[in-house]
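Dear colleagues,

As part of the handover before I leave the project, I'm documenting each prediction I ran so the next person doesn't have to rerun anything. This entry is a single chain, and its sequence is reproduced below.
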Amino acid sequence: RLKKESDIDGIRKACKLVIETLSLVESIIKPGLVTDDINTLVHDFTIKNHATPAPLNYRGFPKSVCVSINEVICHGIPGDYALKDGDIVNVDVTSILDGYYADANQTFFVGTPAPDAKKIVDVARESLRQGLSMVKPGNTVGDIGWAIQNYAEKEGCSVVREFVGHGVGFEFHEPPQIPHFGRKGDGIELIPGMVFTIEPMINLGGHMLRVLRDKWTAVTRDASLSAQFEQTIHVTDDGYDSLTPYEL
């Protein structure tokens, strides 16, 4: 579902709120912070800005934000865990403002990162950069996945297969799916007006995962660290525009 300029304006406003929310979260990240406090902050800030936290009650998800720590790949449920020095924590925010959806996430260091933590966060960040570099009309979804996989595997890391980027704007998840692995030239062609997320989940070890009994929390099967960065992207006439820009 291609977006008109008026739709892009609406999505951009929702995206601005998401970035403000992530910046607020970053300002409080420290050892001892309980993950449910991140949820409270995100929920209250979202409501205060006349928006709705999209994850809350989405297919039964019980909280307003996903908080994924260390070996948790995605969909971590905030609770009573207190962050520890050396942890890495991904915070994934999706907000609905005036009917439009925006989605972005970042992985933060808690205190002083160990070398392995620094490596996986750096590789995940660069993986998003590599994916973004392929976004322009005439390229394909496969070009994005190829660029990410090619880079991450050269760095000795792996790309999660089970979770992918997706169209966004009118709904939480829309077509097309954006895998973070693949082959050049595969998949649908990118055209102006598309809005989707690129959100590579990169593991320090193997790409295999398992989902915990809560039916949400996905963790690396080998307990290796995992990191992720996500932005919402608009395909323009000559490239792309990140609607959730933050420094990579």
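The chain has a mean pLDDT of 98. The helical segments are 5-28, 35-48, 115-132, 141-154.

All the best with the project,
I.
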